[in-house]
Amino acid sequence: MGNKKDSTREKNQRKFNEELAFMDRNRPDYRNTACEERFTCKVCGALVSPEDAGSLHRNHCPKCLSSVHVDIEPGDRLSVCRGTMDPISVWVRKNGEWAIIHRCRICGELISNRIAADDNPALLMSIAVKPLAMPPFPLGLLGQETMKGR
Predict the structure, then answer these.
(1) Which of 67, 80, 77 is nearest to 111 (CA)?
(2) What is the CB neighbour count within 10 angstroms for residue 141?
(3) Facing residues of 99 across strands?
(4) pTM surpassing 0.90?
């Protein structure tokens, strides 16, 4: 019985290695070149093109801000996950530039992506203020805690 499991495992490993080799030969590499591909958003169905992004790289839908888990390092297209990535937060980089934090629905990985010039501003703001709209404590306690410290 152990031999059958081992042979199945070896067969699966060989298949995985062959798929990786095929992907490596046929995948685009956008680490040093512009990504000019158009894609259809898996979440909202919008046709997304790089023209209005304001950069050479488009990595998420400007309408719903969702992405697909395709990279391990930005632009390498080496991730085999391919899960939908939801925008869960925003943060401000040292230079003042905003970035979106995406979380993969399949593997849970968190990835930061620059916002694009044509991103939905209302959706960006709603993500930014969500923690303020849903604090982890009753807002009535906010003033009481400040008064106790005096």
Answers:
(1) 67
(2) 11
(3) 91, 114
(4) no
